């Protein structure tokens, strides 16, 4: 490699440190030994319960449950909403493996829906499949933070009697037309895994306004008969209907992780602004590169872009591999959704062979074949974003011409 070429040396997986207040509180909890969310003194409210109350207030929802992961939150959401083995659940084909995994875990059948060139669900295909499949459940991913037309989605759900559950792993803090992502469906599910908008290593948050759903979710999560220790919950009478009929799946969050998250929640909106500043630099620069395009975003979408996606317009598979390899050689780590075999966190729907009847989705295949994906950690500054764009531009000129 020509040693005079610019290279990028920062780590695309390096996140910012946990706020000092979170580390201090976590140390206090470790010194006390009271990591389990129900290991609290009489009258004491644990960190997990405090996080739930604070996140529900942030979202403007009645209830919140802190879970072990977003995948477990989605599983609890499906079970608590009433999904049973053999039921059919609609799901967009562009998502990550925990989403179909949550559906499979319920014993339900998965019906994948096409996506568009803007990386969002194809609403015409959703309408057709909802009509033809007679499905009553729709687990929708706002994949990589791209939000579809939520008013149209609600119209489709109403027309076909679909229960909407939102996977908001990539849209914590985002809005559509001024309304928070995760409040359109019956249930919203969020992630606090390391690469998401709040970082507890692993973790998830489930929000809803439905008292029966939250009661079942709390019981499913593994509250034993200690649900009275939750502060984000309905009256105890609601639990009487469900407590002996609801299995314990042990999907709780612990007090240690909740302690790490609470100070991050206080900083979330500022973090969202900082992510978008970086995204906007990259988006503007990448859209100037011949052969690359970041699809235009709907003005109603109040996105939070902790990653960026772009499509290679005219590259065949060989040129795409050259482009990816040359960027990697110069320190720019891009993921590609065109691989049939899963690579790291990235997988295409064809690799989910554990459920029968894998469909052929030509529109989705065309979009994924050209789709590149890149994290934007807040440890990168705006100069870093310009450096990355310079490298991608040079590599594109060399490999895609």
Number of helices: 12
Radius of gyration: 22 Å
**Percent of residues in beta strands?**
5-15%
Q: What is the residue-averaged pLDDT?
A: 96
Structural classification: alpha/beta
Proportion in helices: 25-40%
Number of strands: 14
Please give the oligomerization state of what you see: single chain
Principal-axes shape call: globular
**Low-confidence region ranges:** none
Report strand order across the widest sheet.
Answer: 1-9-8-5-4-2-3
Please outline the major beta sheet. Answer: 7 strands, mixed
Order of helices and strands: HHEHEHEHEHEEEEEHHHEEEHEHEH
Could you tell me how far the N terminus lies from the C terminus, measured between alpha carbons in angstroms?
19 Å
Q: What's the helix and strand layout?
A:
Elements: H1 20-32, H2 47-59, E1 63-67, H3 70-81, E2 88-92, H4 98-106, E3 109-113, H5 123-133, E4 137-141, H6 150-160, E5 163-167, E6 175-176, E7 179-180, E8 187-191, E9 204-208, H7 211-222, H8 236-240, H9 255-286, E10 292-293, E11 301-302, E12 307-312, H10 317-329, E13 335-336, H11 362-369, E14 371-375, H12 382-399
Helix pairs in contact: 1-9, 2-9, 3-4, 3-7, 5-6, 9-12, 10-12
Q: What features would you describe in this structure?
A:
The chain has 401 residues and is an alpha/beta fold. The chain has twelve helices and 14 strands. The chain has helices at 20-32, 47-59, 70-81, 98-106, 123-133, 150-160, 211-222, 236-240, 255-286, 317-329, 362-369, 382-399; strands spanning 63-67, 88-92, 109-113, 137-141, 163-167, 175-176, 179-180, 187-191, 204-208, 292-293, 301-302, 307-312, 335-336, 371-375. A seven-stranded mixed sheet has the order 1-9-8-5-4-2-3, with helices on both faces. A four-stranded antiparallel sheet has the order 10-12-14-13. Helix 2 packs parallel to helix 9, helix 3 packs parallel to helix 4 and helix 3 (70-81) packs across helix 7. It is globular. The model has no long low-confidence stretch (mean pLDDT 96).
């Amino acid at each position: 490699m020509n040693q005079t070429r610019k290279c990028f040396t920062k780590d695309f997986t390096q996140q910012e440190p946990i706020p000092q207040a979170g580390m201090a509180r976590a140390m206090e909890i470790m010194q006390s030994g009271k990591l389990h969310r129900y290991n609290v003194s009489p009258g004491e409210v644990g960190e997990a319960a405090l996080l739930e109350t604070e996140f529900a207030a942030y979202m403007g929802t009645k209830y919140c449950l802190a879970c072990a992961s977003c995948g477990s939150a989605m599983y609890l959401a499906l079970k608590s909403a009433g999904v049973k083995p053999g039921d059919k659940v609609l799901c967009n084909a562009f998502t990550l493996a925990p989403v179909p995994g949550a559906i499979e875990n319920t014993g339900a059948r998965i019906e994948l829906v096409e996506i568009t060139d803007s990386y969002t669900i194809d609403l015409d295909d959703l309408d057709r499949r909802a009509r033809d499949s007679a499905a009553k459940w729709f687990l929708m991913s706002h994949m990589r933070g791209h939000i579809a037309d939520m008013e149209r989605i609600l119209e489709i759900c109403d027309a076909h009697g679909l229960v909407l559950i939102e996977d908001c792993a990539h849209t914590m803090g985002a809005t559509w037309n001024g309304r928070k992502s995760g409040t359109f469906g019956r249930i919203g599910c969020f992630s606090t895994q390391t690469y998401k908008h709040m970082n507890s290593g692993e973790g998830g948050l489930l929000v809803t306004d439905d008292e029966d759903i939250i009661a079942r979710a709390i019981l499913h999560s593994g509250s034993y008969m200690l649900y009275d220790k939750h502060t984000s919950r309905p009256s105890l009478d609601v639990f009487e209907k469900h407590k002996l009929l609801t299995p314990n799946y042990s999907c709780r969050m612990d007090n240690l992780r909740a302690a790490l998250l609470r100070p991050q929640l206080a900083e979330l909106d500022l973090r969202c602004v900082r992510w978008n500043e970086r995204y906007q630099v990259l988006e503007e620069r990448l859209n100037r590169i011949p052969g690359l395009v970041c699809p235009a975003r709907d003005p109603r979408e109040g996105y939070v872009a902790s990653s960026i996606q772009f499509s290679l317009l005219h590259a065949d598979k060989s040129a795409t591999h050259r482009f990816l390899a040359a960027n990697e050689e110069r320190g720019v780590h891009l993921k590609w959704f065109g691989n049939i075999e899963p690579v790291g966190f990235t997988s295409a729907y064809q690799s989910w062979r554990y459920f029968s009847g894998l469909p052929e989705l030509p529109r989705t295949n065309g979009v994924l074949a050209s789709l590149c994906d890149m994290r934007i950690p807040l440890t990168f500054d705006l100069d870093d974003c310009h450096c990355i764009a310079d490298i991608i531009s040079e590599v594109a000129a060399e490999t895609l011409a």
